[in-house]
Amino acid sequence: MDKKTKLRNDWTKQEIEEIFNQPLMSLIYQAATVHREWHNPEEIQISTLLSIKTGGCVEDCSYCGQAARYHTNIKVQALLPTEKVIEHAQKAKDSGSSRFCMAAAWREVRNNRDFDRVIDMVKGVNELGLEVCCTLGMLTEEQAIRLEEAGLYAYNHNLDTSEQYYEEIISTRTFDNRINTINNVRKAGITVCSGGIIGLGETNGDRISMLLTLATMPKHPESVPINALARVPGTPLENNPKVDTWEMVRMIATARIVMPSSMVRLSAGRIEMDETEQAWCFMAGANSIFTGERETLLVTPNPGVSEDMQMLTTLGLRPKKRAEEVWMNSL
Ligand code: SAM
Ligand code: DTB
Ligand code: SF4
C-alpha cells in the first residue's frame, strides 16, 4: 500500500480543531481516504473482552458501574479461575477473534497472588495463539515487565477525557497517574491501547484536547478505543443524554486522521447503534470492535458474536488476522 499521509507527533490543538470542525461529509471523506492509505478497509479486528474480576472497585470514576461506592445492581465477582478464562479464550479464538482482552476492576495491580494468577492467564492465552491484552488499572514498570515476559501483547489504559476535565470525572487519581502507567507500559515494550469516552458532559474542546494528548505521544497508541458513555443506573452520569452517533463518527474520523497507523476501536455504544450507524463509524476509519459470547462488554450489553459476524458479512467486511499469523502465512 502506498502511504501518502505521514505519521506526525507534532500536531497543534488548532490543527486538530480544524480537522474536527470540518463539515461532517468532508471529514468522513478525508478519514476514509487516510484509512485506505494505511489499512485494508475490508478488515475489522475482532477483540473479545472478558471481565475477569467484576465490581467492588475503590475508585470513583463517575461513569463506571463497577465502582463500589455507587448503588448499581452489578454482581461482584472475584477473580475468575484460570481454567475458566482459558476456556473463554479458546471459544473466542474459535469464533474468529484475534485478540483477547482481560479486564479487572482494580485501581492498580498489587504484587500478590491474584497478580500471579493473571500472569498464568496471560501465558495460557498467549499459548492459544491469541494477541493477549489486559486492563488492570495502574501498573509499575516492574509489573509491566513481568506481564511482557509472560507474553502480554497490549495493555489498555484510557485517558478517558481531557486533562482539564479529568478531575470532574474522577477524584481518586490524576491524569498524570494515567500517563505514568502508559509510559511504564511503553518502557516494558508492550503495545499501548489508549483512548477515551465521549458523553461525560465534556465540550468539543475537551474531546480535541484528549486526541491532542494521544496524537502527540512520542509513539501513537497502537489501539485507540473510542467509547460512547454506557449510562449505568446508579452512577452519577446515569441521566446524561445518549451520545449521538454523528458525534462518535466525528471523534472516530478525527482520531483516524491524526493517528493514521493506529487501530481505532468502536468500543462502548454499539448496542445503541443499528448496522447503518456502525457502518458510518467503519467508513470514518474505525477498524476494530469488542465482541464476546456473553453479549456484554464488562457489565453493560453489547451485540453478540453471531450478530456481529452477520453484520460484517452484510457490510462486506471480514475479521482481521493476528499480525503474527499474517507474517507466518507470507513465508
Ligand atoms: N479498572 C481499570 C481502569 O480503570 O483502567 C480497567 C477497567 S476500566 C472498566 C477500562 C475502561 O473502560 C475505562 O478506562 C473507561 O474508559 C471504560 N469504561 C468504563 N465504564 C464505562 C462506561 N460506562 N461507558 C463507557 N466506557 C466505560
Ligand atoms: C475500553 O476502552 N472499553 C472497554 C475496555 N476498554 C475495557 C470497556 C467498556 C466498558 C463499558 C461499560 C461496561 O460494560 O462496564
Ligand atoms: Fe475502577 Fe476502572 Fe471502573 Fe474506575 S473505570 S471505577 S478504576 S473499574
Automatic annotation (TrEMBL):
Catalyzes the conversion of dethiobiotin (DTB) to biotin by the insertion of a sulfur atom into dethiobiotin via a radical-based mechanism. Homodimer. PANTHER family: BIOTIN SYNTHASE (PTHR22976), BIOTIN SYNTHASE, MITOCHONDRIAL (PTHR22976:SF2). InterPro entries: Aldolase_TIM, BATS_dom, Biotin_synth/BioAB, Biotin_synthase, Elp3/MiaA/NifB-like_rSAM, rSAM, rSAM_sf. [2Fe-2S] cluster binds at residues 101, 133, 193, 265. It comes from the Bacteria. Residues 42-267 form the Radical SAM core domain. GO terms for molecular function: biotin synthase activity. Binds 1 [4Fe-4S] cluster. The cluster is coordinated with 3 cysteines and an exchangeable S-adenosyl-L-methionine. Binds 1 [2Fe-2S] cluster. The cluster is coordinated with 3 cysteines and 1 arginine. Pathway: Cofactor biosynthesis; biotin biosynthesis; biotin from 7,8-diaminononanoate: step 2/2. It is an enzyme of class 2 (transferase). It catalyses: (4R,5S)-dethiobiotin + (sulfur carrier)-SH + 2 reduced [2Fe-2S]-[ferredoxin] + 2 S-adenosyl-L-methionine = (sulfur carrier)-H + biotin + 2 5'-deoxyadenosine + 2 L-methionine + 2 oxidized [2Fe-2S]-[ferredoxin]. Its cofactor is [4Fe-4S] cluster; [2Fe-2S] cluster. Its EC number is 2.8.1.6. It comes from Chryseobacterium paridis. Belongs to the radical SAM superfamily. Biotin synthase family. The gene is bioB. Keywords: 2Fe-2S, 4Fe-4S, Biotin biosynthesis, Iron, Iron-sulfur, Metal-binding, S-adenosyl-L-methionine, Transferase. This is Biotin synthase. The keyword 4Fe-4S applies. [4Fe-4S] cluster binds at residues 57, 61, 64. Signal peptide: none annotated.
